[in-house]
Amino acid sequence: MSIDTATAAKVAKLARIKVEEEDLPALAQEFNAILGFIEQLNELNVDDVEPMTSVEPMRLKRREDVVTDGNQPEKVLANAPDAREGFFAVPKVVE
């Protein structure tokens, strides 16, 4: 697969990246280089390779999933523009 300047411009537009017209050929060339690297990776046989989280074997730290209030309600409400009775006070939006 080869990326031309029109496709590079479309990708830049979809990514909301402003690319000048004179820079589009270089961008297309970079996209083609990336696709070439991906094609090289696709040639590798990785059927017997287990996914890793790091280059060193390790287990991820786990903790029990419990809901807490953070034990800091005063600190949280200190940033509120208006707090009453331990809660954020907001303007009424439904009549």
UniProtKB/TrEMBL annotation:
It catalyses: L-aspartyl-tRNA(Asn) + L-glutamine + ATP + H2O = L-asparaginyl-tRNA(Asn) + L-glutamate + ADP + phosphate + 2 H(+); L-glutamyl-tRNA(Gln) + L-glutamine + ATP + H2O = L-glutaminyl-tRNA(Gln) + L-glutamate + ADP + phosphate + H(+). Keywords: ATP-binding, Ligase, Nucleotide-binding, Protein biosynthesis. Its EC number is 6.3.5.-. InterPro entries: Asp/Glu-ADT_sf_sub_c, GatC. Pfam families: GatC. It comes from the Bacteria. Signal peptide: none annotated. The keyword Metal-binding does not apply. The keyword Nucleotide-binding applies. Heterotrimer of A, B and C subunits. Belongs to the GatC family. Allows the formation of correctly charged Asn-tRNA(Asn) or Gln-tRNA(Gln) through the transamidation of misacylated Asp-tRNA(Asn) or Glu-tRNA(Gln) in organisms which lack either or both of asparaginyl-tRNA or glutaminyl-tRNA synthetases. The reaction takes place in the presence of glutamine and ATP through an activated phospho-Asp-tRNA(Asn) or phospho-Glu-tRNA(Gln). This is Aspartyl/glutamyl-tRNA(Asn/Gln) amidotransferase subunit C. It comes from [Roseibacterium] beibuensis.
